[in-house]
Amino acid sequence: MKISMGRRGFTKAAVTALAAPMILTPRAWADGKSIQVGIYTAQQGEYVRKKIIPKFEADYKCRVFTTEGVTLSQIAALRATRTNPKYSVMFMDDIGIDLAKLEGLIDPLPVEKLPNLQRVYKRFLFSGGYGAAFAISTGGLYFNPQNDPKITSYGDLWQERFRKQVLMVTPKFTQSIYFLTATASIVTGKPLHEAQYALDTAWPKMAALKPNILTIYEAPTTVMMVAQGQALVGGIEYSKNIYPYTVAGAPIDMVFPKEGTFAGINCLSFVKGAPEPELGAAFINRMLEPSVQQGLAEATFTAPSISGLNFKPEIAKYIAYPESRMDEMKLFACDWAYINPRRPALLEKYNEIYGS
């Protein structure tokens, strides 16, 4: 039977359809939008790209484009795009939050759009609300257990047995400030939190270490030289760059000398004038969700920044979590408001000693 609809019938049906409520998903506002996010390199960057971002894109029907880098390159990218912001969210260490705030490169985190921010430990909120940690690495030395050098102090690295056997992280990276602080602690006898204000006392001692340095590296994969027996020790390096190899069966492990353990704090920041700020805020909030924090910690062996999570013993032994464990390990975070203005001069001095 053929069904026909006259003009009046069509008009009535159309009006009825238009009057019906449109069914939208809670995140329909994000459909088809995109953001650019500056993430880290190595295992953590890979996990964010492969595990966190695809689900976020599916949930919000959006696209997330990434650029990998480290803190100084992230800051440089924000400076280069200051007049025409490209990024919405930028990952950077706590050292970068203070610097980016002072230069007007980031805005305060939009607290009202970040319900998961309430879960973050207060010690991991930075610069008056401009940054929030999402992963905390422990910074120390790494070695091959098959050739255990039995290190108890950072001062051991100056011993003759380590001649041309030490791998040092490039002065471009935050870890170089940790090494300088540890050296100042050895020279002055002061604890790390006091030694960081006496960094200039460390330079003669740093120069004396030069014969023991085998190479200064940037690529995180260089740590495998220790696993392969080409060097005895390296650092200061982050646990997130070491423990994934350890768990995979490589002969490499970490030691945290008696002077203390450095906190490598990976943070989230909200770029000033960011394109698609709503979607950027949603991404930051997603990074702080308990399920995301749990998965990231288990994959990269970094401590979460939020409270209330539990880990199996095989994971817990590698991370500084919960807060009581952080205190037990004497987890130390530098005073970047003091150090940052001095950083260019420190970098110049590093290059003067090790560049020749």
Defining key terms:
alpha/beta; twelve-stranded mixed β-sheet
Describe this entry's structure for a reader.
The protein is of the alpha/beta class and 356 residues long. The protein contains 15 helices and 12 strands. The protein has helices at 7-19, 42-60, 71-80, 94-102, 175-188, 192-195, 203-208, 224-227, 243-247, 277-287, 290-300, 313-316, 323-328, 336-339, 343-354, and strands at 34-39, 63-68, 89-93, 106-107, 125-126, 131-143, 166-169, 213-217, 233-238, 253-255, 261-271, 331-332. Helix 2 (42-60) runs antiparallel to helix 11 and helix 3 runs parallel beside helix 4 (94-102). The chain is globular, with a radius of gyration of 24 Å. The relative contact order is 0.18.
Short summary:
This protein is 37% helix and 18% strand. It is α/β, with parallel strands linked by helices.
